Amino acid sequence: MMSCLKHVSAPLLSGVFLCCISLFLWVFGVVNVNLSVGYMVEWEFFAFCGVSWTFPIILDCTSVTFSCLVCLISGSVSLFSVSYMESEVFLRRFMLLIMAFVGSMNLLIFVPSLITVLLGWDGLGIVSFALVIYYQNSKSLAAGMLTVLANRVGDVLLILCIYLMVDWGDWMLMTSMLGFYGGFICFLLVVGGMTKSAQIPFSAWLPAAMAAPTPVSALVHSSTLVTAGVYLVIRFYDSLAENPEVLWFLSKVGSLTLLMAGLSACFETDLKKIIALSTLSQLGLMMFTIGIGYPFIAVFHLFTHALFKALLFLCAGSIIHSMVDTQDSRILGGLDKLLPFSSSCLVMSSVALCGMPFLSGFYSKDLILEGCLTGTIGSLELLVILVGAGLSLVYSMRLMFVGVFGQYFGGSLITFGVESVYMLVSMVVLSVGAIVGGWSLQIVWVEANGFMVVSGFTKMVIVVVTFGGLGYLVMSAIVANVVKVKKSAANSLTRFFSSMWFMGGISGSFLSGGGLSSGVMLHSRLDSGWMEVLGGQGGFYMASLYLEIMQMIMVLYIQWVKASAILAFSVLRFNLKLFYSDKLLLSGGMIWFSVKLSLKNYKVSYFCGYWCE
């Protein structure tokens, strides 16, 4: 009993603690505070040559509400982890990573300075990498490397923004950003936010990150990491608004991401990847909303989306946990009878994603479509947004019809119906948020932000778009049974859409393969080539050549000395033979012998010389 309490204490206490913080922020920070104004507390550490380094903390409607939702979802995920990760050996390590992730996210939320934002930004990237590779296998490692490398691009762009912001004297990014220089800084900031929010062309890492445990996906890929880029762009929107070209670029990228993710989700079969692609489509919708000039509506949709998407991930985790790690939606089926509560929450969160009236997603999604219909956007862009909004109903209904109400094709030995109390409590908490969260946030949000009033015709267009996806789903099912499409063309089309328009191959195989081949070429031609010739191996070769030449010179010199000695002895012998006696001739011979031996042994020459004396 004590060992069980020892293992469950970490996630249980963390969940209760985070839920209490969320309740405190909601009661004292959201409901009872005037949300039309904001407060900023700033500490100045030093100022040098006109550049000051400060630590600001901003308390306004956006930051407090976002932190409240992050703590609520984190607490629910911690409670869910009590049962989902009960067999995990390093459970405390897992919870420490979760708490570090929550701390980094709150640092990013409350501090508007770019330097401190970079600390929270880097913390999110490092901890997310550790969580994605938590299951130690090759698939998790590949997904973690793709995730961390894509996010490092955003880190580099933020560092460049900090470097360029020195000319303004601070890093608050609250000043005017006019001109080419300011527009370039805003462009770097927007592209950096796109890397965290997995916008085109950085979209491949989000479905790959589903290799992480499902509680991590519920926290990281619904309300924290993927929304950090959206929150960063919203926080510095006042500076971005002075550069309409940057917002135009953001709206185009967001609309393409929405369409690409929606089409890919309609062809995906992995349960978690379907939910990840739906998250990606909603992130594209948020970025598009910011680009057309409605950041407060984007914040509202970010909040409501976090509630029902976290619930959707937890429902998927409960199903996967009960079905012994089965994630293929083609095998799932009959869950309404086998796992009634989890399937009910899955259906509720899915229809909230579709924009079902009076659920959380309805309030924010309806406002976004109203803004598109009443705004000054192009007709093609409007068509893309309406199609993307309709596709959310297509893949949600497909998931429900196949996975929940369809026929089960799995094995017969799997034990169903094991829904833990902690799982049920966490799903109940988020279910309340998915049902009444949009309504309660709208009460708070309308007091802080004004919204437009549209005509009845516009409302009817929104209803047609919202429920038009259901008609398309039924029609496509009928056509598939009546008309037989050519198999090769159908397979090619399915492969194109299910691979995110080959975005995974482009950002994974193509870019990384090109980088690896370039690295191999640079290594062979530069590192192991010219740098070795001019450096280590070349220096060693030149030194060896120099030593060989010196050795040859010494050998030639010795031979020259020998020849000179022989010649000198010959001349001396001839002279001695002519003018001196035989005794002197013997002494000269000993001298010559000692000279010859001196080249080989110094002691012998010394002895011979001594004997001659």
Automatic annotation (TrEMBL):
Family label: Belongs to the complex I subunit 5 family.
Pfam families in UniProt: NADH5_C (PF06455), Proton_antipo_M (PF00361), Proton_antipo_N (PF00662)
One term of GO molecular function: NADH dehydrogenase (ubiquinone) activity
Residue ranges constituting the NADH:quinone oxidoreductase/Mrp antiporter transmembrane domain according to the UniProt record: 113-379
Gene Ontology terms: biological process: ATP synthesis coupled electron transport; electron transport coupled proton transport
EC code(s) of this entry: 7.1.1.2
Membrane topology: Multi-pass membrane protein
GO CC term (a single one): mitochondrial inner membrane
Provenance organism: Pseudunio marocanus
Gene: nad5
This protein's name: NADH-ubiquinone oxidoreductase chain 5
Subcellular location: Mitochondrion inner membrane
Domain NADH-Ubiquinone oxidoreductase (complex I) chain 5 N-terminal, residue spans: 51-95
The NADH dehydrogenase subunit 5 C-terminal domain, residue ranges: 395-558
Transmembrane spans: 12-33, 53-82, 94-111, 117-135, 142-165, 171-192, 204-234, 246-267, 274-297, 303-324, 345-363, 383-409, 421-441, 461-483, 495-518
Function description: Core subunit of the mitochondrial membrane respiratory chain NADH dehydrogenase (Complex I) which catalyzes electron transfer from NADH through the respiratory chain, using ubiquinone as an electron acceptor. Essential for the catalytic activity and assembly of complex I.
